[in-house]
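The pair is listed for reference:
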Amino acid sequence: MHKPNAIRFGFLTAMLAISFLSRAQQTWLPRDPSPAASVSQTVGISSITVNYSRPSIRGREVWGTLVPYGWDKNGSAIGLESPWRAGANENTVLHLSHDAKVEGTMVPAGDYGLFFIVNKDNTGELILSKDYQSWGAFWYNPKQDQMRAKIVIRDVPQSVEKLFYSFDTVSRTWAELDLNWAKKQFPVKIEFAVDEIVMYNARELLNGQTAFLYQNLNAAANYSLAHNIDTALGLKWINRSIAANPGSFNSLAIKAGFLKNAGDSNAAAKLMKEAEPFATDAELNAYGYQLLGVQKYAQAIEVLKLNTVKHPDNANTWDSLGEAYALSGDKKNAIINFKKSMNSNPTAATKANSEKYLKQLGAL
């Protein structure tokens, strides 16, 4: 009566020993058949990382044979159907640095075992398991699932011999994680609330010593302004920055941006006028091009002309003023200023821009 239990116990002990030895091996011996690999992608300030092992085809039939279609009825040690471990050896592990939407489902930050189901018709399923430390799908238990989501698997023309993960599509707020093997690709969309994460991080940092540098306050306030998020707090940050360093053109320009977005264009313009004496040549130049971008040619010319007065030996200031005149339709003054740039020892890039315009204006 006791022999079957003893046999079963012996089998489990052997399997656990093999699992332990295999795990130990990874730290000090190479894995030739299915080497370990890792891939990461940053989205905003959040990161996605996948740690996995890379099996090769080696002449085998992959889909439906090496990797069964549907649920594997024979791959579990606890008598349950199991999914594919999405790699080789121990679990493929997905790490999320922040909470994210994975295929539309919110998933807390942390580590997860990554599994797939693949069907013959290219329908499939993504599974994230809270049990990420097991050996493949050997101990997979659906009670540990964090989420499941249906996916559509893609056929690709070129066969991939050795499995790999990639991030082929990345945007400001999301990335697509792709498993590539044989002639199939498994896409998983992972999305972060980037603006909320960045602002939360900024609030935490600016409650400490980070706030003693006005440049950090500027960076956080400018993010708030650029993405129109938590602008009341952004305005508080920029006011703190100005109090710490009242002679910063960049700080005053950011505050002017908040005023303009709030509908007070006159106050914004007045503040920018007050800020001009504090500007470096690069800051004045950037401000001038900002005005050119919204076709405020007279204001742009005024700003860029001030830059030539403050920095007469800088060829780029004359080149920029010439460009402002050219865009406004004042050919005569454009030629005068481009020639001044050419006579002020310009860099190669500045010289090329002046020459381009002088040719267009028939003056070269």
